[in-house]
Amino acid sequence: MSQMTTPPPVSPPGPWKFPESTTTTTSAGTPVHIFDRPGQYVATVRVTVAMPLFVEPRELEGVATIMSRTLDEGTELHSANDFAAALERHGAAYGVDVSSDALHVEISVPVSHLAPAVKLLAEAITRPAFNVADVGRHVTIRLGEINQEKANAGYRAREAFAAYLFDASTRRSRPTAGTPDTIRPLTNVQVAEFYRNNIGPARAQILFAGDATGVDVAAIVDDAFGDWRAEVGPALETPEPLYLSGDRVVLVDRPGSVQSQLVIGCAGPDRRSAAWGPAAVANHVVGGTITSRVDTVLREEKGYTYGTRSSFAAPRKGGTFTLGGAVRTEVTGAAIGDALRILREARDGLTEQEVQEAKDSLTLTAPLRYEQADSIIQQVASNIANGVPIDFADTYMQRIAATTAEQATAAYREFVGTNGLLVVVVGEAKDVRPQLTELGLGDLIELT
Amino acid sequence: MPLNYPLAEQTLDNGLRVVVSSDRAVPIVAVNLWYDVGSRHEPPGLTGFAHLFEHLMFQGSRNVQSGQHFSLLETVGASLNASTFFDRTNYFESLPSGGLDLALWLEADRMGYLLDALNQENLDNQRDVVKEEKRQSYDNRPYGDSYERLVRLLFPENHPYSHMTIGSMADLDAASLEDVHAFFRTHYGPNNAVLTIVGDVSVEDAFDAAKRYFGHLPAIPTPPPAPDGTIGPLTEVLRDDVTDDVPSDLVTMMFRLPPDGTPELDAAGLALDVLAAGQSGRLNRRLVRDEQIAQSVSGGALPLIGGVSFGTLTGIASDGVDLQKVEEALLEEIEKLAESGITADELATVQAQAERDWLEQLSTCAGRADEISHHALLFGDPNRINTRIDHIRAVTAEQVQAAAREWIRASGRAQVTYRRTEEEA
């Protein structure tokens, strides 16, 4: 036969649910959520600890990050070098992540080596040594990392965006991992104190995903974490963020840039809001994919960019909407003009067809997103950090599926362009400045 | 652990190799095509063409409108993309299994009939997009041109691996529509590709579907093979010292390595892992933890099929430390490994790490489909995905030392350094 001239039909998929878990608790009272995923030979084990960053002392911001990064750098039982060697000998990879509301410490490890690797994970979390030299080294490494961040256009744009979207009283207006003036004074004394005051079994939840066939995961976890005895009460609740509003343009000079890095955005909903699902649908239409309204013009029609993406994102309290990407220096003004026009026109309404396609794409990709053990853990840990049920993905998918075009438009209108849009440009200021002035977007704030 | 992913293989009459691995655990299916065309196949003057097609293949074909490839697949829940490398290009999508026919129809339409839609307008537009990609990924980031500089040093002029996949913008600018059409006619056809289908479909249904959509496509004349890149270890030190506005001083060394698919390459890769992988690697222990002369170290092998591979070691100097000290420490560790070999414990560690990496790579239908295409296209044997761990486990400490002694030496390396522009007084 020859080539068909029209696309073949697609048979609809069956219903989908987020993978189910069983929950136990350790002898220390820490909840343990076990996702048995046959065929996932590499397991992820993660400990998520409620750790709101606003409790960091203002003059020591970044102490939570340095504390987190030195958990495995020497314990009561192993030196830093010996700990790494022991863990890696089991084929495990170890990582930490600090977000605005939680600390995540995880290993991925072949299930065949689960027990000894979990023992080491527990050692890092429950018995860190915080030696002077190891903490000092991480302070130095963080200072070097800040130099790298300053040279990275994307990082600079996100940093300036946070600084001008949030009021200075909001922790998120400043970098999670601290700045040179708050990092330099840190010693192991403050790091250990922060640990003592903030990390304990009552604030933690332990997650496992992987092929648990013939493995008593609950017993292995209890053997490692059951005797964790740190007297730390519940974490404080993260306060609501304070946003700045109005149309503003921030230009960060980055001499030698051959592109301008852009972030355009404003406040957005968080998971407590009824808009959280509908906003995701609207975002998909406006800037969430290569076929979105923004990239259809900026990339496919005009060739200004390799690609832009927008998203609504939120930690526990208070979200953001951002559109980000890099455009050629000479067309910076034109690209921003087009982007703002498209973002504002979307307030006039999204079509039924656009919204239906976005809903289909968002709901039907769910089974792909949670195929891997690690991706399940990331989702569940994020749910815990953000204060929603561990199977929130099901609720979220139901809300998306039920979203009408009117609701998607309304959710978008509630945020995007309502209290102004903040435009951040990182690039060659002398070339970009006149283009921005020509656009007449209001006050221009210049940073070097 | 022994792996036993099921594999079934057929070659259609037009030469398309089809590999199917049925897995009913999740209701999705992964479709993955590897074309035997990468940057190593590009003749001088046509660099960047394989990658340019990675863009043009989404601009429509005989029965598919521009942009429709993405929109049709996205609305049925697909995740899709493409990538280009030295040895090949690949095109792939994962989606709920009811969309298998749609995915195959779209892939077949662009394999057979892309040129019906490839006109001057979308060539010009995607050339602009590629230039922005180069600015974003290479030119506008610190050290972004390091690999371009290194492969130019490491390989002779016009060697198939002496240029990067992004290619030369001058070559792209000079390309006519006819050059682009000719490149497609030469390389894109059923007998120059492997199609892999993994997931929630029976073997029989998958083969039937492959035949239904690809069976009628005509074979193309056998494409010219890539030039033979066989070349031994470098026997001199070739340097490129750059002074630039970089955040920290950095040194990267690049070594030629044996070609992929040989025990020697596996051994050389493990040697680089002993030096640079993980937190327990020798370089991290010494340079970052003990002496604190480096902020970070990294490295590893990059396996290639065309007669030679390469590997790298990178160190970023700590603030206020002379980069020369980092370079000297790297060279000392390289020579120590070549002279004294590795311990049984080090070998067991890097093997265990390689095993986890591999199991993770195979843990999704998409990842498995990619490796099946890879091993079917480049080695003619998809079952290598099941034996890969055994190959890694079979490498001995003696083999690691022998490979290091021959290929990873202070006296045979290409090296680029970046030093910060001196502040004006």
Automatic annotation (TrEMBL), chain A:
It holds the Pfam family Peptidase_M16. PROSITE patterns: PKD. SUPFAM superfamilies: LuxS/MPP-like metallohydrolase (SSF63411). Residues 17-27 have a biased composition (Low complexity). InterPro entries: Metalloenz_LuxS/M16, MPP/UQCRC_Complex, Pept_M16_N, Peptidase_M16_C, PKD_dom. Residues 1-16 have a biased composition (Pro residues). Residues 16-48 form the PKD domain. It comes from the Bacteria. Residues 1-30 are annotated as: Disordered. One of its GO terms (molecular function) is metal ion binding. This is Insulinase family protein. It comes from Kribbella albertanoniae.
From TrEMBL, chain B:
This is Insulinase family protein. Pfam families: Peptidase_M16 (PF00675), Peptidase_M16_C (PF05193). InterPro entries: Metalloenz_LuxS/M16 (IPR011249), Pept_M16_N (IPR011765), Peptidase_M16 (IPR050626), Peptidase_M16_C (IPR007863). GO terms for biological process: proteolysis. Belongs to the peptidase M16 family. It comes from Kribbella albertanoniae. GO terms for molecular function: metal ion binding; metallopeptidase activity. The keyword Magnesium does not apply. Residues 176-353 form the Peptidase M16 C-terminal domain. Residues 17-140 form the Peptidase M16 N-terminal domain. Keywords: Hydrolase, Metalloprotease, Protease, Zinc.
